[in-house]
Amino acid sequence: MLKTYQIIIKGQVQGVGFRPFVYNLAHAFKINGSVSNNEEGVVIILSGNENNIYTFYQKLIKSPPPVSKITHHQIDQIEFTLFKDFSIIPSTKGDKLNLTLTPDFAICKDCESEIKDPKNRRFQYPFTTCVNCGPRWSLTNTFPFERANTAINSFPMCKTCLEEYTDPTNHRFHSQTNTCAACGIQLRLTDNNQQNLDLGKYSLFEKISKLLSEGKIIAIKNTSGYLLCCDARNEKTIQKLRERKKRPHKPFAVLYPSLELLQKEVLISTEEIKALTSTERPIVIVSTSKYKGGINLEGVAPQLKQLGVMLPYTGILQLLANKLTFPIVATSGNIHGSPIISDEKLAVELLSTVADYFLHHNLEISNPQDDSVLKISSKFETKVLFRRSRGYAPNYFDFKQHNSQKILATGSHLKSSIAFVPNEQVYISQYLGNLDHFDVVERYTNTISYFMELFEEQPEIILTDSHPQYQSNVLAKELGVQFNKPVIEIQHHKAHFASVLGENNLFNSNDKILGVIWDGTGFGDDKNIWGSEFFTFEKGAMNRLIHLSYFNWFAGDKMAKEPRLSLLSLSNDEIKESIKNKFSEEEWAIYQSVIKNNTLKTSSMGRLFDALASLLNLVDYNTYEGEAAIVLENQVKDYQLKNCKNYHPIVENGLILPQLIIQKCYEDFMSGVSIPQIISNFLFTLSSIILEVANQQNIKHIALSGGVFQNTTLIDMLTELAKDDFYLYFNNQLPPNDENISFGQLMYYYHCENLGNRKKGKVIRK
Questions:
Q1: d(CA 734, CA 396)
Q2: Looking at the structure, do residues 323 and 415 belong to the same domain, yes or no?
Q3: Structural domain of 690
Q4: What is the pLDDT of residues 549-575, one digit of tens each?
């Protein structure tokens, strides 16, 4: 007896070739019916033999399209309908969106082969994509994911593209981003006066390769924004780029033309290769301790023994790579501190003094995104996201909605992101940047507006950081007034702790959990600057346990930018005498007076790292966030636990003395102990303190978050010391830095704020 069933599939199932995959599978099973996208995912209606339909269903769930991610599926019998064939029905949006959005995917092997093949009609066409690859979130205006809802809609398909689009045997069957050279996007190479270049005997990408080899800087419009590119071997050009971009020391990412060349020059692990060749194609930070190539390492990554590398992930970059025999710098197209630029007019206005040449194209980018960045620890291969953007945003998986409230979490100030819950999903924006900069604030507010428009919802609750001077806090209050909705402040480090608890599904744990939240700064409940917090979490209650003993925080933001000030704050009289040369006489007198009358205190672990970097004469001034800590870690090639010593005695009465740690480091430094060994001892000390606190509290589960835990040497050392005696939990879908604050605010509100503990999250407006 024939029956009719409806299958609902939710998850990352739009813009991934799901409908054409279902179409071909249905034909293979000789089942009639239809498949369509809707506001929640994919709907499949099938008529036929019950056993055949269930076999089809199992096959689909077990072996879906390669870039899809199914989070929910169900099958139900419905009223019988007779179908003559199987068809793909154009999407209809009957309600507000409630689906997982689709990130950008790296170019697949099939498309990569086609653009290399002189006999293929897409030979050297840089915007070649198919159902398994290409930009998605970058081009999305609204959902469901149909061509009409993307920026690609400005390029109507030619006859041949349309034939591919309607051919079930073609890998562009129902590919919404399908274009070719005849009907698609056009490139234009200009000088920095916007005069088109005469290519002469060269093809476009041969010309760009030649210009790069001649020491020119080129702004290349990729599918998610402009990249500033130059020869990574050329010291003078790299320095020129640093001067023009106003980025004196922050490392540049390097694009290798092929994995083969990368492996010849850099020793990389299997896990690093897996990340580099994934559909997300992030920048992966790798060690250069055994580097064999010709990159000007000191120019690209000053004072570091690591390099951020990536492989081509779009047709544009792949076609350029096909003409390159050397790696190139490929850094975000912006002025240091500003967001990545995607608009041609703005690029010309702001980058004409930076780039010698421009490669433009006429495809509008709806959602500009930086490249994502991650690092894999060397001993235990723990993956740590440093920046979550292209390829990952805006989805977060494994989220369970706790009520029907529409919630906006506005995140932090540095490394800002927003989280929005307009339906059953949570959407976490791509990395947006430092809200000290006006144009970052503009992109931040535009992103909030875009999310509200996309989902046709306004927040009923607004969550924000408790720091009154954070721009995210200021904007949250403005939104509270605009929508007449309550704004709830959540303490910075509690949000960090909640983020890692949420990612690891620990809120319902029967065990007490120790939270170790270490970073640079966060406004504390006692109005001091926190940053080395130990919390406990049990049955919905989050409590501060201990922290580094307070030390002086003075000179405002300068303290985070000048490690020498942290060292001064943590020095005894003997050390002070030895570091006077780091200050002018006038500065010394002023700072001594300021410290004497200072009342603001801090427990910042980030500043302790800064102090050590200055003590060891590595960094006195940070030119980018976290520079001192990164330089410190890079001094350690390897470590042996048996050779490490503890600079701090067993923690008693909750006292952890940062001054004592600095004093012990100073003593070793003056006695000639090597800098790498001192840093290894320092990290060993911090790891030992964590486990000692856990032992004293009789806690076996430890959750760790905050920017300090971007230090993969610290993670490896802690993991090695913990052995099988402790369970360690880290952020995994999100970075440990402030990008996770928006998600953490949401998790705190759901699991702590709503349990009658209102003092932990302060309602500042109703």
A1: 9
A2: no
A3: 510-731
A4: 999 999 988 999 999 999 999 999 999
